[in-house]
Design goal:
Strand content: 5-15%
CATH topology of the largest domain: TIM Barrel
Largest sheet: 8 strands, parallel, barrel
Helix content: 40-55%
Shape: globular
Number of domains: 3
Number of strands: 11
CATH architecture of the largest domain: Alpha-Beta Barrel
Structural class: alpha/beta
Order of helices and strands: HEEHHEHEHEHHEHHEHEHEHEHEHHHHHH
CATH class of the largest domain: Alpha Beta
Number of helices: 19
Length: 467
């Protein structure tokens, strides 16, 4: 059911408004029916006012029932101090069927008492999946409520990136556009932000400091902007990056050059809590002519060395591994062993959803790709390579059709992904990390008025960047 009137959304069997606040009055009814109606209104609804009211209800119900957006900063501080160790935090980019996949995450987490996990969406993904920050955070919240999960939820802006060509052409414009996105994301309860200014590294310069200068200076500028926007009582977790994923592997010397330049420029203000590096992976994996994914060899020695330097020398949680979801299963246990703080996972979840889409829908999507993305096909690509590399861009245009799949099929996909998440959580050793989260993370149950959610969404233009 899609809500078509404000009164049916805000006053029904499970909800009512009291003194300008929305209250859950029947939790069983709310979980059984209202959550699904809110979800349909958010994803399928055409009335922007009702969609924004749904965001308000989702947030308010979360605060009331113990599902609260939070920063993972204090846990990462404890990791940097050596008080907590032995696991790697998975950060999961959910590109499609966000509600159903998030439900699978929460079920997997509840089974092992896990709390240290992150939902994230990259700057580019916000564009091509048609998931604005408030929609993303609201759907994640609804999924947690549906599964009866309690505690903080960590929502992250991934690869909030600057494009080097645009930066060199008009520095202020490029930074200003990123600031607009940051303002929207933080307002949508993204209390974890990964700044990616590594695109500005200039390897043509003579020394490491000059190579990293644009990177660390812009990272400082954006860090300060984030601190100005963060709500009272929230210390947003910020990540930096020194190596562009898919490029050459990072070195200790590059880490030192970035961190020393960053800290000297930042001064006494709170800085980043982790650092992303390059160890041999690429986003989405390397697709072969037959559509399969090439095996990748991660430089675990570099990951271990840079994580140790990040912790012992700079007090960070450690290094972050990007582009890891298409790695072989036998690789994942290594990340916690080498002290990797966080690992980013995305493409494999998308691939698994595509495996279960009905053939007529897939054929419709692939025909759309051949029409709308033909210009992206490189001369040496096979059709399989073209489809694999471009099909993520169809997730926004086909979002409503994918959401409208039968409940039976969506439940099947969710169960398959639950097995995947459970495997990854076991390998990354996040069992019982709910205890650490409860110890270090303070829940701020801040109620917000309806008008907070009713502002207009600005056109951000084309959201380019890594994913």
């Amino acid at each position: 059911m899609i809500y078509t009137k404000e009164v049916e959304l805000l006053n029904n069997k499970g909800l009512k408004t009291v003194d300008g606040r929305v209250k859950v009055i029947d939790e069983k009814e709310f979980r059984a029916h209202i959550i699904d109606n809110l979800l349909d209104t958010i994803v399928l609804g055409v009335d922007p006012h009702l969609r924004r009211l749904s965001y308000w209800v989702a947030y308010s119900a979360g605060v009331q029932l113990g599902v609260v957006p939070a920063s993972i900063q204090e846990l990462y501080t404890a990791m940097g101090q050596g008080k907590v160790k032995g696991f790697t935090v998975p950060a999961m980019n959910i590109r499609t069927l966000t509600f159903d996949l998030a439900r699978a995450v929460f079920r997997s987490a509840k089974k092992i008492n896990a709390g240290a996990f992150i939902f994230e969406i990259a700057k580019s993904e916000i564009g091509y999946t048609d998931q604005r920050p408030l929609e993303y955070s609201s759907v994640i919240t609804l999924a947690a409520l549906k599964e009866g999960y309690h505690g903080p939820i960590f929502i992250q802006g991934d690869h909030f990136q600057l494009k080097a060509a645009n930066y060199l052409k008009d520095r202020e414009k490029e930074i200003s556009q990123l600031e607009v996105l940051l303002k929207e994301a933080i307002s949508a309860h993204f209390y974890n932000i990964d700044i990616d200014s590594s695109t500005l590294v200039d390897l043509s310069k003579d020394n490491l400091n000059e190579q990293q200068r644009n990177n660390y200076e812009v990272c400082v500028e954006i860090s300060r902007y984030i601190r100005k926007l963060q709500p009272a009582g929230i210390n947003i977790s910020i990540g930096g990056e020194i190596g562009e994923v898919g490029g050459k592997n990072s070195t200790p010397e590059e880490l030192d050059a970035f961190m020393q330049g960053y800290l000297n420029s930042l001064g006494s203000q709170a800085g980043i809590s982790k650092i992303s590096i390059q160890t041999g992976t690429s986003h989405g994996g390397v697709v072969l002519p037959d559509g399969s994914i090439a095996k990748v060899s991660i430089d675990f020695d570099t990951l271990a060395k840079l994580s140790e330097i990040a912790r012992k020398k700079y007090g960070l949680a450690g290094a972050v591994q990007h582009g890891a979801s298409t790695l072989p299963n036998e690789a994942f246990h290594r990340f916690s062993e080498v002290g990797c703080a966080e690992i980013h996972l995305a493409t494999q979840f998308q691939n698994m959803v595509y495996d279960y889409l009905p053939l007529p829908l897939k054929e419709e999507i692939y025909a759309w790709l051949h029409t709308n993305c033909a210009g992206e096909k490189k001369p040496d690509w096979t059709d399989d390579q073209f489809i694999y590399k471009t099909r993520k861009t169809a997730l926004g245009p086909f979002k409503k059709k994918i959401h409208s799949l039968s409940r039976e099929l969506k439940d099947k996909i969710s169960l398959v992904l639950e097995e995947e998440f459970s495997f990854l959580f076991e390998q990354l050793k996040i069992k019982d990390t709910k205890n650490y989260v409860d110890q270090y993370i303070t829940l701020l149950k801040t109620e917000k008025e309806k008008n907070y959610f009713l502002g207009e969404e600005k056109d951000l233009g084309e959201l380019e960047g890594a994913d």
